[in-house]
Design brief:
Strand 2 and strand 3 form a beta hairpin. Among the domains are: 266-329, no CATH class; 334-460, no CATH class. The chain is built from 17 helices and eleven strands. Strands 2, 3, 6, 7, 9 and 10 form a six-stranded antiparallel beta sheet that branches. The chain is globular. The longest helix has 28 residues, at 9-36. With 462 residues, the chain is an alpha+beta fold.
């Protein structure tokens, strides 16, 4: 868990809030700099001519692509060809045709791949384009497997839309997921889509209640009432505990203030970790809707750390609560891990969550070159707490609580590169996965010189 060491709570957390605002401004500036490197999508005669060239060059391929798999394969071929195309019009025409083929196939993976590539080069509203094309692809999905994948993908994009506070977009995606889930004839998929749709609506209502308060915090970062309301939203609706907890600690709700203080202070022993988890659990029993669910997940994050070092009745009680939380919450079926790795490391996947092990004895995950990068789980930052203070050496982290349940995951390496968000897979030692008792272990050897960002997608085999 993120720990804020402080001698004076109010002043240090106030400084932390000013730091958050400063970082937000820096990221906004960086984002605008990246956007400046993009170009406007071509239009008019240039695009018309380029589209004709694509149709002529790939005439035989286009005529031969009949099945969903053939259309998906051709879409990927055009995506690959676009990377070697120097002209903007030609590149856009190739990617547009790839998007059309992907939509026709009913497979969501090539749809997102094509639009990601367009977004890398051209000034577009990628979220809106994704939403429109995913909805179109849903009408073409035919098999149960296609529909389940489409539901998973649509909900993942909906999460990104909610993270950006784009709730109309998130609602559109949730509706697509829900209607597709009904056609998939899969109770589990339908339950997940239904829960997400309800969660989007709850979060939108909560956001409408606090969005007018946000400017006040920019001027008065220590305002108690504003911190309570925005901190409550971030923790209990968006699950952003790293930013939300310091706000609750500055807020004017004494119960949440005490809980946040204890959580920030943390605990290194199992009994203390259980105590923090119990406090969140007790409040969750009196709290309905999404806030109650998020409180239980926070309890689970502390229970998951403690359970490895418990025994007897104490362990049985905590395991029972973890099982209850898993049953009552959406099971994760598809998630992406992004991490900065410089030595042999393992990601251990358990029914209750994930944790890192450092095996090589050199820099730990995220620590290479004196850095302190988080691990990202579906785009959300997780700052692993290691067992030992040194930035290198054999060690393992606490468990990040996730509602995983049954262990039947496969994996796909999405990207490997020097920067987070890099496209393509740099040649490195192969990533592997094995079953180890009641865990699945993703092994990243990283024997080559220089740390690299790995993006690895984990998904269920059925």
């Amino acid at each position: 868990m993120p720990k804020l060491k402080r001698q004076n709570r109010g002043s240090d957390i106030g400084r932390f809030m000013r730091y958050i605002l400063m970082v937000t401004m820096i990221w906004a500036f960086a984002a605008s700099a990246v956007a400046a490197d993009k170009v406007a999508p071509p239009a008019g005669a240039a695009l018309t001519d380029a589209s004709k060239l694509v149709a002529d060059a790939y005439k035989a391929d286009l005529l031969g692509a009949k099945t969903p798999d053939e259309k998906s394969a051709l879409a990927q071929k055009l995506i690959d060809a676009s990377k070697d195309e120097k002209g903007a019009a030609g590149r856009f025409a190739l990617l547009s045709k790839a998007t059309d083929l992907a939509v026709d196939s009913g497979n969501i993976k090539p749809v997102t791949a094509a639009i990601d590539e367009i977004d890398n080069v051209f000034e577009i509203d990628a979220m809106k384009l994704l939403t429109d094309k995913v909805a179109a692809a849903a009408s073409n999905a035919q098999s149960p497997a296609q529909r389940r994948e489409l539901v998973t993908g649509a909900l993942r994009i909906a999460d990104k839309a909610m993270a950006a506070d784009r709730y109309e977009t998130a609602k559109s995606l949730a509706r697509v997921a829900l209607s597709t889930a009904r056609l998939a004839n899969d109770v589990g998929t339908l339950d997940v889509a239904t829960a997400k749709s309800q969660g989007v609506q709850e979060t939108e209502v909560a956001y409408d209640q606090i969005k007018k308060i946000l400017p006040l915090l920019a001027d008065k970062p220590d305002d108690a009432d504003a911190n309570f309301k925005v901190g409550r939203f971030r923790c209990f609706f968006k699950g952003d505990w790293e930013k939300g907890l310091p706000m609750l600690a500055l807020g004017n709700d004494e119960t949440l203030k005490r809980l946040a203080d204890n959580d920030i202070r943390g605990a290194s022993e199992a009994d203390g970790q259980v105590s923090i988890g119990d406090a969140w659990w007790d409040v969750a029993q009196r709290t309905t809707g999404r806030p109650g669910e998020q409180m239980k997940l926070r309890a689970a994050s502390w229970y998951s750390q403690a359970v490895l070092n418990l025994g007897g009745l104490a362990k049985t009680r905590v395991e029972a609560r973890l099982s209850e939380i898993r049953r009552g919450h959406d099971k994760i079926s598809d998630f992406t891990i992004e991490a900065f790795v410089d030595d042999e490391a393992e990601l251990h996947i358990t029914p209750n969550g994930v944790y890192w092990k450092e095996l090589g004895g050199f820099d730990k995950v995220g620590k290479a070159g004196g850095q302190d990068y988080p691990t990202y789980v579906n785009g959300t930052a997780w700052h692993p707490v290691w067992g030992k203070p040194k930035e290198h050496g054999l060690d393992q982290t606490e468990v990040l609580a996730l509602p995983i349940g049954r262990l039947n995951f496969d994996f796909q390496v999405v990207a490997v590169g020097k920067e987070r968000g890099a496209k393509g897979i740099e040649r490195r030692s192969p990533v592997t996965m094995r079953n180890d008792k009641d865990e699945q272990v993703l092994s990243i050897p990283e024997k080559e010189s220089g740390a690299r960002w790995y993006a690895i997608r984990l998904f269920r085999k059925d």
